[in-house]
Amino acid sequence: MKIGVISDSHGMCKYIDLAMEHLKDVDLIIHAGDNYKDAKYIEKNYNIKVVAVSGNCDIGGIEERIELIDGKKIFITHGHNYGVKMNINVIFYAGKQNDADIVIFGHSHIPFYAVEEGMVLLNPGSTSLPRGGSEKSCCIITIEENIKVDFINI
């Protein structure tokens, strides 16, 4: 199973389109918020299922969700309610409390990947407005026997 992960696209469809050039062979897209409507854009234009959460710049939508995908429990949230711009402690414990295998978040616009106590913590960065000297980015999670994460600069 291959999952494309994007976040913080902020309605900038030209960058979503660039990301989708790299994500065309994935089975599913996860959008970690800021702009919830972008998930509908992807579904409509690329005919692929998108699992999305809303972010701090969205009105309405689902702020967090847990999905069981290919045998892995994935906790998805934008991250603004967990202070991810400061550190990952709160989101780490939220992931542990939810017994997650993978925690996906955005909000900081900076790519992040770590494995802590067997749990993957992942921020794909921003497809449109990167921060901290990073590039516009997205990533692919490959779930086989192990979980593999590949970042893609767009």
From TrEMBL:
Cofactor: a divalent metal cation
Keyword Metal-binding: yes
Organism whose genome encodes this protein: Alkaliphilus flagellatus
Family the UniProt entry places it in: Belongs to the metallophosphoesterase superfamily. YfcE family.
UniProt xrefs under InterPro entries: Calcineurin-like_PHP_lpxH, MPP_YfcE, Phosphodiesterase_MJ0936/Vps29
Descriptive protein name: Phosphoesterase
Keyword Metal-binding: yes
UniProt entry keywords in alphabetical sequence: Metal-binding
EC number of this enzyme: 3.1.4.-
Domain called Calcineurin-like phosphoesterase: residue spans: 1-145
Secretion signal span: none
